[in-house]
Amino acid sequence: MSTSTNGRVMDPAAEVLADPTAYADDERLHAALTELRANNPVAWVDNPPYRPFWAITKHADIMAIERDNELFLSEPRPLLSTAAADDMAKEQLEAGMGLRTLIHMDDPHHRKVRKIGADWFRPKAMRELQVRVDELAKRYVDKMRDIGPECDFVTDIAVDFPLYVIMSLLGLPESDFGRMHSLTQEMFGGDDDEYKRDGGSLEDQLAVLLDFFAYFSKLTASRRETPTGDLASAIANGTIDGEPLSEVDTASYYVIVASAGHDTTKDAISGGMRALIDNPGELERLRNDPGLMPTAVEEMIRWSTPVKEFMRTAAADTTVSGVDIAAGESVYLAYVSGNRDEEVFAEPFRFDVGRDPNKHVAFGYGVHFCLGAALARMEMNSLFTEMIPRLESVELAGVPELSATTFVGGLKHLPIRYSLR
Fold it and tell me: Coiled coil: which residue ranges (predicted)?
């Protein structure tokens, strides 16, 4: 144990949550989280360059905090970043050029902004999109066959399939897909040496954001002048209380849909593929019983948990599992830990394609439940439904690599050897 500047005792196990490299080491991360769930489920963390926070590692506590969105607010600290990055984000917003996505907002503004894109992810819209997603799934499984017998499943397949789906939904040209992928990597992978732009400084991170805004500002002007019946047009022409969305909110809406809309699904797809390779009995079980695909997809999402955390700030003094939390203090919702909680999941470290119930928190909970959850499920279902009957054999062809991150991430490389019809 160590003591922070305010006299609170810090649990060394909790320090991994403020260490991006821990998320690239499953064994180290889960050992620490298992320790915290058992002995210190609401743990104080004071680990510069991050500002202090309370680490919440039990599923029930995460759910309770997500449920009480009037007490626990997204603003001003919706995710874990360094104090310098927090300060820069605040300054940029005050200057009218920062990022303020749905994850940054609280009700009632959050509810109004969310509504602008919500219809595009409802069941009716998903049914209309199903044929296109199935076509793309076949295209990418065919690509996998054609480039075999080896590939990097992440960079060759898992990245492009969901990127193509979300860009098509937005109505963006295929010529821009590569640029969008690179910008997303740089934004979410800023802690990983492979993805950092130049030196990965705050100025470099700001440059990534400005690139996004420049691209989407042009898109907004185009769609306002000539709407084209796509999601980009809906966002560009969205209104709140009869007034157009602000420039910041419009650009931010595009950013969260375009980036999170494909990167998180990429992580779930590649994490699911690795889980099937590591658990050949479960792969065979799924091959023999395709009716298990819906539960298998949920298990892949639980297993990979692409969004590692969100944060909330207490609006008033409160307690969580008997621990006093003062107004203004932040809590870190450790979704990775919640999805391995022994009190919720039988044998949580066993990958089970038939797991039911599966009350994972990978999509969040409550008012901030992931807007694109249905789309992610459909994409994964389509891809694996197309792939598994055609997959005659598959094994690792090298060492899988996870990205260093404290927010969104998963496998960045998954070299595999396979036989595919």
Answer: none
